[in-house]
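Memo to structure team: turn this sequence into structure tokens by end of day. - J.P.
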Amino acid sequence: MVHTTGKSLTLDEFFALPDDDKTYEFVNGQAVPKLLLSTMSPKFFHSAITGALFTLLSQWSQNRGRVCIEWALLLRWQDKPWVPVPDLTYLSYDRLPKTWVKDEACPVCPDLVIEIISPGQTFGAMTEKSTNYLLAGISCVWVVDSAARSITLFSPDSLPQTYRGDRAIATPLLPTLTITPNQVFQLAGLLDN
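Reply from structure team:
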């Protein structure tokens, strides 16, 4: 896929662009690189946290739903098509049946999206993106900050909640999930034993 400037693309044109080694999101009719600068490219912490969250959520979600890494979402934001690519997505089988198996973008709003702050990204920018996810119909957004060793939960019906240490993340959307930031960072190898 190539970064476009000038003419707006349709959603079909966006998905027809040739692939390259970057991940793109569809924003306001443009193919926008998920990470704009090479300094923002995910590093070890990002990769390790992605793996830890994928492992923990996959164990919990068995027979409940699917957990995916960097799965494009077909959303609408400000009455326009928007295709973000969150770091992780959880989608219950209630929203998209287990029998749905297609190699395409996610056609429904997931239950949860997770964004992990990469070098060069800011918590403020992730907060803005989280707000956009909520306005597009996502039920819950987690922003993971490896520097602060925290996970901030955004939902449409409450103020953001930041979790640190052994405080279990609590959300009515995922009532049986018991996970703490320390579990995530420990499994990622980012905390001392």
